[in-house]
Amino acid sequence: MLSWVQKEKEPERFLLQWSGTIFKYPLTYKQLHHRILLTNKLPKVIHAYIAVDEDKGVNKIIGYIELDNIRIFDGKRKSAYLSRVIINPDLCSQGYGNKMLKGILKLAFIELKLYYVYLYFFEFNMPARRCYERNGFTLTSEIPQKRDFHNENGAC
Question: Is 84 left (phi over 0), alpha (psi -120 to 50) or beta?
Answer without folding.
Answer: left
